[in-house]
Amino acid sequence: MAEKARSVSPEFFGTESVWKIMLRIAPPIMLAQLIQAMYNIIDSLFVGQYSDDGLTALSAIYPVQLIIIALAVGTGVGTNTLMAKQYALKDEKGANHTAGVGTVLAVIMWALISVISIAFMGPYVAISAQSPVAMQYANEYGMIVSIGSIGLFLEGNWTKVLQSEGNMKLPMIAQIVGAVTNIVLDPLLIFTAGLGIKGAAIATVIGQIVAAVIVGVKGARKPPEIKRIPCIAKSIYKLGYPSICMQALYTVYIAILNIILAGFCDEAVTVLGLYYKLQSFFFIPLLGLQTCIVPVLSYNYTSGDYLRCRRIFRSSLIISGVFMILGVLSFELIPTQLIGLFTQSETVKSIGAVGFRLIGASFIPAVFSFMTPVFFQSIGYSKTSTFLSVLRQLICLVPLFWIFSFIGLDYAWLAFPLTEVITGAIGMGMYYYAIKRF
User: Which residues are listed as membrane-spanning (predicted)?
Assistant: First the structure.
């Protein structure tokens, strides 16, 4: 079954040139992420047309969605990394068992999120927005996307299973079809059916389920006997918890920033939400390469080819840096025009023009602060990877943002470039120390 699922053999990661590997596996992932980013932007466009309070609601619920993604993708990354190691050791049966356990864990995580959302969605929304209408929209949207996230969890696992085997095309197709489904359903459910914000949430859930069905055709595996599941699950989360922590901390700091910004006005919360929607578009090469290099680095490190690990990482930095220049130019030169795509609020435009320009200065150093934790995760240095994530998202960004907010809203955005410079420099220092020990 696994042989039929693979478009290339895992040995491809250890025999082909580094640039050929990147050109083979990165474009499908980046294309899928491009469609996903376009979906996020279009989704916000439709909601913005419906209501400015709806945009604030989406910004408030964004951290909740990131928590769900953190658990889904982190579990998938752990499954992916363990499978890559097993393929490097020629243990295909073990890889199939790992894939099956990943599916079991995805269902458990979905059930856990559903219960937590029912219990805590209301209190969370109450501290994330000021307008009663925005709070109502946020609660409706958040409950639907949380309880309906089974598709996201299964798609996250099955996509990583296929990627560990070198099959990048089917996940790309699944994400594109899922995003297009969402985009088509958005106006129909929001406006035609008159469901408003609830319609946007339902469209999101349906799109995720469609994507899960597509990758599940080849990505689903039968779990091993029950007594083996705990041991394999422990190995999966030992490799996947840095990714979960990195995504979860990302969520925590956005939630905290939303609370700080809500002390100024709802429009400031909206600006932060719009930034993260647009950021996902410009960060596509960086995020795509993060996904690509995990199984490649893991395979080569397990095989003992440390020189290839260095080449893969260096090439990823170069590619990411070149593409990030586009994001810098856009945020520095046309911030008002970017914000104007979503809202005509002069307050949002005024706040965003200053914020976007200051945040845009962080894009180049972000290449280093984003890629170094992934490198350490891929080679099994989970504690180092987690430390770098905590350093960036909690130790640096949140305190700096809070301190600068006392000076004024415009100054708070300075926390972004300062954080990326600090964590990027420390991450690269730890990287050079590590490769000297190889």
Answer: 21-42, 54-78, 99-121, 141-158, 170-193, 199-218, 239-261, 281-300, 312-334, 354-376, 388-407, 413-434
Say if residue 420's pLDDT is above 70.
yes
Mean per-residue pLDDT of the chain: 87
The radius of gyration of the chain from alpha carbons, rounded to an integer in Å, stands at 21
328-355 residue pLDDT tens: 999 999 999 999 988 888 999 999 999 9
Nearest to 98 by CA among 233, 212, 299: 233
Q: CB–CB of 254/277 below 8 Å?
A: no
Q: CA 383: distance to chain centroid?
A: 20
C-alpha span between 213 and 205 (Å, rounded): 13
Confidence class for position 130, pLDDT limits 50, 70, 90: confident
What are the C-alpha distances in Å from 89 to residues 10, 11, 46, 76? Answer: 11, 11, 49, 20
User: For residue 112, how far is the Cα from the chain centroid?
Assistant: 20
User: Alpha-carbon distance 180 to 80, whole Å?
Assistant: 26
Distance CA 236, CA 78 (A): 4
Task: Encode the chain in three state secondary structure.
Answer: CHHHHCCCCCCHHHHCCHHHHHHHHHHHHHHHHHHHHHHHHHHHHHHHHHCHHHHHHHHHHHHHHHHHHHHHHHHHHHHHHHHHHHHHCCCHHHHHHHHHHHHHHHHHHHHHHHHHHHHHHHHHHHCCCCCHHHHHHHHHHHHHHHHCCHHHHHHHHHHHHHHHCCCCHHHHHHHHHHHHHHHHHHHHHHHHCCCCHHHHHHHHHHHHHHHHHHHHHHHCCCCCCHHHHHHHHHHHHHHHHHHHHHHHHHHHHHHHHHHHHHCCCHHHHHHHHHHHHHHHHHCHHHHHHHHHHHHHHHHHHHCCCHHHHHHHHHHHHHHHHHHHHHHHHHHHHCHHHHHHCCCCCHHHHHHHHHHHHHHHCCHHHHHHHHHHHHHHHHCCCHHHHHHHHHHHHHHHHHHHHHHHHCCCHHHHCCHHHHHHHHHHHHHHHHHHHHHHHC
User: 248, 70 in Cβ contact below 8 A?
Assistant: yes
On the 0-12 / 13-18 / 19+ scale of CB atoms within 10 A, 259 is: middle
pLDDT at 233 over 90: yes
Tens-place pLDDT, residues 294-323? 778 888 888 777 888 888 888 888 888 888
